[in-house]
Design a protein that fits this description.
Blueprint (H helix, E strand, L loop, with lengths): L3 H6 L6 E3 H4 L6 H10 L4 E4 L2 E3 L2 E3 L2 E3 L3 H9 L4 E4 L17 E6 L4 E5 L2 E7 L9 H11 L7 H12 L4 H11 L2 H7 L4
Parallel strand pairs: 7-9
Antiparallel strand pairs: 1-3, 2-3, 4-5, 6-7, 8-9
């Protein structure tokens, strides 16, 4: 087995690959990747990043966002989130968003990977396991960019503070809050 067949045999459904991950399995990697994209075996997500679709009863499954971001960044140290998570906090947010936010230490800016948009944001600190307290702080940090009634949301945030673990919330505000967010939370804590 050689050439494109060898490369194809190394692929696993549902996996994402960088070009450099596959270079050892082909003597003409760019030509073979081009063939696999052309015949539908692989989907090109961005420059040098590919996805081998997993088949389901409903057709091809999209790539797992975490795996896609991990391959794109070549790193495990990131937090993948969405403004949609704010809707679960019970503070009156109701909008649905079609993008992902990636807190990381390497990249900044909006990037389209496949058919999804990811907003990469450089952050010095973010939790490995986010808590509701972190998400409440993150909501206030990002309130200006959300399509919500800001006054109503802030009133609800003030009420929400009374139902949360104040010690954990104080810690999240201190670690992850912007200057403006800290000013908003100061009288509430």
């Amino acid at each position: 087995m050689k050439g494109v067949d060898l490369l194809k045999s190394k692929l696993k459904p549902g996996a994402t690959y960088r070009r450099e991950d596959l270079i050892n399995f082909s003597n003409s990697i760019d030509r073979h990747l081009g063939q696999l994209v052309k015949d539908g075996t692989l989907q090109k997500m961005s420059q040098g990043l590919f996805y081998y679709p997993r088949q389901t009863a409903f057709g091809q499954a999209p790539p797992d966002e975490k795996k896609l971001v991990r391959s794109y960044l070549k790193d495990e140290d990131f937090l993948l989130t969405s403004p949609n998570i704010f809707n679960s906090l019970g503070v009156g947010t109701t909008q649905l968003y079609n993008n992902w936010v990636v807190y990381n230490h390497k990249r900044h800016g909006k990037v389209r990977l496949g058919n999804q948009e990811f907003d990469f944001r450089l952050k010095h600190r973010f939790p490995t396991t986010p808590t509701p307290e972190f998400f409440l702080v993150d909501l206030v940090n990002n309130l200006g960019s959300l399509a919500e009634d800001k006054t109503m949301v802030l009133e609800n945030v003030a009420r929400k503070v009374n139902t949360m673990d104040k010690k954990a919330l104080k810690k999240s505000v201190s670690k992850y809050g912007s200057v403006g967010t800290k000013k908003i939370f100061a009288p509430l804590l």
